[in-house]
Design brief:
The chain is an alpha+beta fold. 33% of the residues lie in helices and 21% in strands. The chain is built from nine helices and seven strands; from the N terminus they run βαββαβαβααβαβααα. A seven-stranded antiparallel β-sheet has the order 4-1-3-2-6-7-5. Strand 2 and strand 3 form a beta hairpin.
């Protein structure tokens, strides 16, 4: 219930939920499209990361999508960059338009084309949800992810935006694969630094949760899938880890399924305490999940007990 993640089982017998006002919100959509993922495309990615922390500090939260090979109808592909940001309890669109002006100018200079920018104002969060989230969800993609939490201090340091763009451009994505930045930390997550919970302490320093996708089709062989998965673990996740070696971590619900040193990646310095609690509450390991607390005492499938 408080960020423990997979394997922290429990039975909830009572819940108290704090209600919040249905705040107004402004949604912004920024994007640019180029014929291919050329130098100008990745320069735009670099330039954006110069503005990521200031946008977050001014209340922006949301997602951005880097799709170097985006198929188009009729054949062929383009390279797209899309930024979706929400500003909760903001009612003045002029403030946001002025805030985005420097980013839009920088993107135009970097890419050689004017980016598209739209702004949508809603009186309440619920009205925004009812507008954007209609119909039913689809499910069932054949996909595996790799990801890393990236700190505010790293993104904000000189030279880091160029390093991020250069590293991401080296991840070999296929058609429809993408890199996603989740700007969901900062703000209250960072402000709650003093709260004790199972949450990986790295979250308190995070400005973006970066992930990439690797999809395959139903006729991909098991051997081919193994190659894709090994590439994620051995070659591509290390690209993200190289930003801040030995630091930060990963969000276990959107991490590499074969994450190396998952204990540190998912729980950081809290893992030792969680394992101690696990050994007291579940000494015989009745509740076990792959890459969960205490799962190192079992084989990779969670079938055979393998602790010494």
């Amino acid at each position: 219930m408080r960020g423990g993640g997979g394997g922290t089982w429990g039975v909830v017998v009572s819940v108290t939920v704090k209600a919040h006002p249905d705040y107004p919100v402004i949604f912004t959509l920024t994007n640019y499209t180029l014929p291919a993922s050329n130098a100008e495309y990745w320069k735009g990615v670099e330039v954006f990361h110069n503005y990521l922390v200031p946008l977050n500090d001014n209340g922006g939260t949301g997602y951005y999508y880097i799709t170097p090979i985006s198929p188009v109808s009729g054949g062929g592909s383009v390279a797209t960059f899309t930024l979706q940001m929400w500003f909760v309890n903001q009612t003045d669109p002029t403030i946001l338009a002025n805030m985005f002006d420097p980013l839009l100018a920088a993107l135009r200079n970097a890419t050689g084309i004017p980016p598209a920018f739209e702004l949508f104002q809603f009186p309440t969060m619920s009205s925004m949800y009812n507008t954007f989230f209609t119909g039913s969800d689809s499910d069932g993609l054949l996909v595996q992810l790799g990801s890393r939490l990236v700190s505010r201090s790293f993104v904000n340091s000189p030279g880091s935006p160029a390093k991020i763009a250069r590293a991401l451009s080296g991840i070999k994505l296929g058609p429809t694969d993408y890199i996603e930045g989740n700007v969901v930390a900062g703000g209250q997550v960072a402000a709650n630094k003093g709260i004790v919970s199972a949450l990986n302490p790295a979250w308190r320093e995070t400005v973006v949760h970066l992930l990439f996708t690797r999809q395959w089709t139903a006729n991909t062989t098991v051997q081919q899938q193994a190659v894709i998965k090994a590439n994620i673990t051995n070659d591509e996740v290390p690209v993200l880890k190289s930003f801040e070696p030995g630091q930060m971590g990963a969000y276990l619900n959107e991490a590499d399924a074969n994450e190396v040193n998952f204990q540190h990646s998912f729980w950081g310095s809290n893992y030792k305490t969680l394992l101690a609690i696990k050994s007291i509450r579940d000494p015989t390991g009745v509740f076990v999940s792959r890459k969960g607390v205490g799962s190192e005492n079992w084989d990779d499938q969670g079938i055979c007990y393998s602790a010494p």
